[in-house]
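ok so i was messing around last nite and threw this chain in just to see what happens. nothing serious, just curious
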Amino acid sequence: MPLTLHKNPGVFPARHRKFPSYFVWDGKMRAGRIYKEETPKNAALPWAWSITALGTAPEEVSTKGHAATLEEARLQFEASWEDFRPRRQWWHPSRKSG
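result:
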């Protein structure tokens, strides 16, 4: 199923609303977020993305990054999500460790 972007309706404080923010959905699951930073550390890479879905990823899988454009951020997110999704390790309070 292709990933879809939906505008984040709850951007606070109000001054941040002029900076685009999107939730990334994989079907009915919210996979993460892509947003334009107000004051990026690197002005050439103002778009930030992060995978926020429940689960942990192996160290070699990137779950966050920065890009020059929304489209680049989406492509980076998608590539990481394709690697993360089948390899994530679920945690649930009912699961006993050990």
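not much to say yet. The two ends are 35 Å apart (CA to CA).
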